[in-house]
Amino acid sequence: MTKESISAKGDLRLTRLTKSYGDFTAVDDLSLIIPEGSFFALLGPSGCGKTTTLRMIAGLEEPTVGSIHLGSTDITTTKPYQRPINTVFQNYALFPHLTIFENIAFGLRRRGIKDVDAAVSKVLDLVELPHLAQRKPTQLSGGQQQRIALARAIVNRPALLLLDEPLGALDLKLRRQMQIELKWIQKEVGLTFVHVTHDQEEAMTMADTIAVMNEGQIEQMGSPADLYDNPKTAFVANFLGQSNLIKGTISGNDGDSHIVDLFGQKISLPKNRSHANDQFIYAGIRPEKFRISRLGTPTSGNILTGGHIEDVSYIGVSTQYQVEMPWGQELMVFEQNDDGVAPFSKDEEVNISWEPVFTFGLRGDEDATAGSEVNPEELDEE
Amino acid sequence: MRKIRTPYLLLLPGFAFLFTFFILPIMNLAQTSTQTPVGGGDTGQYEQTLRFSNYIDAFVENREQFGRSFVYATIATLLALAIAYPLAYAIALKGGKLKNFMLILVIAPFFTSFLLRTVAWKQILGEEGFVVPTLRTFGIISDSTTLTSTSFAVVMGMTYNFLPFMTLPLYASIDRIDPRTLEASGDLYANGFTTFRRVTLPLSMPGVVAGTLLTFIPAAGDYVNAAILGSPNTKMIGNVIESRYLKIVDYPTAAALSFTLMVVILILVTFYIRKAGTEELV
């Protein structure tokens, strides 16, 4: 291998990638293809192996088993400085002793690129901070440092740009703005972005494709809408948004649908939305898909009767209800406040209904709470 | 009003101490340096005659020892830097759980006396030590060559004695470097050597400057190493001042030499800090 970086291009292919630290397996037999030009997100809770995966792609960790290919080139054991891959680090890792200009020029100078000035000014214009070229990183705000870190990476026009929780240190409002900006920049420069985050909203806003990771493996991969509408596991159902999972059994078939018995009440589940492998099943419904109706009001679709409103929270755009069902489970229901009034009050007896196409089916032997716990440590993961 | 006065009150004990034990002795020293012996008086009796040529006489007479002091101190500082940098780097970046233990080892020599450790070096480098026979076996030095009472021994002793003063500031500044900036450098096409030259070294410059000053300044004024490990041919300016003051009781010359040493070091240090540009560093 020469000192020059290799000029591979194409899809990124991870094949049976495993990384172990002693007894602990951080990444477990992971295979994945990231198409050239896509905005790809690795989403998962802290400790799921997403950062380790990213570091292996960057060359900062060596896989225990498996290979990494960029196009047709095997880069598994290539040194980081020889890979055409750049990283936007968590907390940015800007060089404190260099000016913003020299920070951005660093990669260009190492590769002996001519006309550093033009390339740096162009990328400073792209991130809209040309006036800061002669400052030092410590004189910049968090949002500005974030953009410089991005500029320092994309100025090299890498085949692959890795973003490690790039917005984690920004406040909520700035984070929203940067999400939109990052997506725009990705379109503008046409590079492949691989984005690691534990923030499901961030992943859904930006990425074309999301791979949800849990315990070193990919739980499910797909477009944000796919993952949200048709999760395959309880972990995905709970980690991306919220879900109501009701235990039941498949009691029959009706054309393209299963008939599912939920504590004595029959509902319909499209067969192609069922991921169960036997008759024991969790029927899943997103809270906003439910409709609440008073007893005796005509309803259509799947209906569950005998609900009792336990709690009402008015939160502006919607009202959230906790409805206790006859079998003791509390279901979450979000109703849009289209008419401006909360129409149901605590202790009312109601029915719950929804369109059958919104039902999804999960394996009955899963842990229904997987992925739903809120882990406060995740927020300080650095 | 209280708020404004508090910082000055806090400074008071420090100022009082410095005034009593630094400013007053320095003024006394300055006064002594221009005195001449009392005509027909006893040894050690001097009177103020404002004879500034004391300085010229003292310097001309001890040029050689002055020069030697700065050469020895420079070599010892460079050697200490060469030894301490890899040591501090390894402790800071690769030390892991053993970091604190290794730091204790660095300062462990301070638990015994400076003098005693220097005497120990005399034995290590002596005929009975293991160094001389080993070097002779491998033919690196001839059978007639000895290591004690040489400039080599003096410089080695100084390097050893001031090594912790070099290591600790270096460690502190390397330990402060965010390891992710080193990863970022590798990510941005810099290999190990370039990363060291462009990132690690510049970021550790405050430690290099502090460490070299903390080694060079005491080394230039040192006399213990030359007295114990050296010979009359390796006398440093510290040895001259010591003997003028304590043996010959020539207070004015000792004072003039001390002042000259202080001024030369001050000039060198000012020049060095300007050149190293520490104010530019974070």
* Basic shape of chain A: elongated
Biggest sheet layout of chain B: 2 strands, antiparallel
Q: What is the name of the CATH topology of the domain at 12-84 and 158-229 in chain A? A: Rossmann fold
The proportion of strand residues of chain A reads 25-35%
Low-confidence stretches of chain A: 376-382
| Multimer state | heterodimer
The largest chain-to-chain contact, stated as pair and per-chain residue counts, equals:
A-B, 28 and 19 residues
- Given helix and strand content, the structural type of chain B is mainly alpha
pLDDT < 50 stretches of chain B: none
State the CATH class of the domain at 12-84 and 158-229 in chain A. Alpha Beta
The helix fraction of chain A, in percent, is 10-25%
Give the helix tally of chain A. 8
Radius of gyration of chain A: 25 Å
Structure notes:
The complex is a heterodimer of chains A (382) and B (282). With 382 residues, chain A is of the alpha+beta class. Among the domains of chain A are: 12-84 and 158-229, Rossmann fold, CATH 3.40.50.300; 242-363, OB fold (Dihydrolipoamide Acetyltransferase, E2P). Chain A has eight helices and 20 strands. In chain A, strands 6-7-8-3-9-10 form a six-stranded mixed beta sheet, sandwiched between helices. A five-stranded antiparallel beta sheet of chain A has the order 13-12-11-14-20, with no helix packed on it. Chain A has a five-stranded antiparallel beta sheet with strand order 15-19-16-17-18, with no helix packed on it. Chain A is elongated and about 75 Å long. In chain A, 42% of the residues are buried. Residues 376-382 of chain A have low confidence and may be disordered. Chain B has a domain at 64-96 and 105-236: MetI-like (MetI-like fold, Orthogonal Bundle), CATH 1.10.3720.10. The radius of gyration of chain B is 23 Å and the shape is globular. In chain B, helix 7 (151-175) packs antiparallel against helix 10 (205-221), helix 10 (205-221) runs antiparallel to helix 13 (251-276) and helix 12 packs antiparallel against helix 13 (251-276). Chains A and B meet through strand 6 and helix 2 of A and helix 8 and helix 9 of B.
